[in-house]
Amino acid sequence: MFFKPLDRMWERVETAKDHSDTDLFLSLMYLGEMTLKLTAVGLVAAINDGKERHRYRQHYQLVRASGIGDWSKVIDEVLTGASSQHLSTYAYKEQNELISVNKAGTWQYNAVNLITECLSAIDLQTEAASKKVSARQWFQLFTNLRNKTRAHGAIPSRKYSEINNNLEESMLAIIQNFSLFQRPWAYLHQNLSGKYRVTKWSPRAETLDFLKVRHNRDIKLPNGIYIHFDETQEINGLVKIELIDSDADASDFFFANGGFNGKRYVVNPKNWTQKYTDIF
Fold it and tell me: Of 93, 138, 266, 268, whose CB has the highest number of CB atoms within 10 Å?
């Protein structure tokens, strides 16, 4: 791979393989939650926030989310709901990859079919994948699997060994092929000299190296995580990602996790809190 947050979580998955099937399953669940949340914030960032404030509405939903299912609903809304009409043209590729109907042999079909088999293996009633599917189904199916096994119940440990391989392959199909994770992502931090420290999250983030030179002192970008959606433009092609945070060393990654009280919301890991006003 080489997408820093997912790579870091993947290291945890590899370590868990030396422990137990249960540890591996739980690590895969954390990987899936991170994948889903990264997808949500990345797609929301691509919404043009005009007078109807569609981007704000989706952030409003996410900061108050009571569970991973609310994040999945936001993804669906951005892809096919009213907000989809305000999606920037540079994100049409991601939208098409997730809503197009695909048949066997495509990464989209493999991802959905494999996670459907995981649900069947734990006796959760679900329809078998049809001959053609869309990848956006994966996020709701993952939510169902997560809620069935972690939030609202438990399954026998022997079941984990039956589904781990399919679950891993399903997630890899999304992570390795979805265009959003192949975009230039980076954490930007401006030094006193005016130069930016560019912590690359993906190889293509080298497009942001122009920020490292001193003559960009007049460029004022808040420290944070950015996607370079339109690489033909330097500053105008950058979009800041909200509701996740990191640092210039990429030493940790923090995701909004509900608990909003009007001023602050919970951030995972470590149940940190962050000011709502820092985001909006």
Answer: 138
For 207, other C-beta atoms within 10 Å of its C-beta total: 19
CA distances to 236, 239, 249, 265, 273 from 109, in Å: 35, 30, 36, 36, 38
* 254-267: b (≥16 Cβ within 10 Å) or e: bbbbbebeeebbbb
| CA distances for 127 relative to 31, 118, 133, angstroms | 24, 12, 12
Q: Look up residue 82 and give its DSSP letter.
A: G
Structural contact between residues 45 and 86, judged by C-beta atoms closer than 8 angstroms: no
Q: What is the pTM of this model?
A: 0.89
| H/E stretch holding 167 | helix 157-177
CA distance 110 to 169: 8
Q: What is the pLDDT of residues 154-203, one digit of tens each?
A: 677 788 888 999 999 999 999 999 999 999 999 999 888 888 999 999 99
Instruction: Single out the residue of 108, 99, 111, 109 nearest to residue 131, CA to CA.
Output: 109
Confidence of residue 219 (pLDDT cuts 50, 70, 90): confident
HSE on the CB side for 126, CA within 13 Å?
A: 25
- The β-bridge partners of 102 are 133
Between CA 212 and CA 50 the distance in angstroms is 31
The Cα 237–Cα 226 span in angstroms is 10
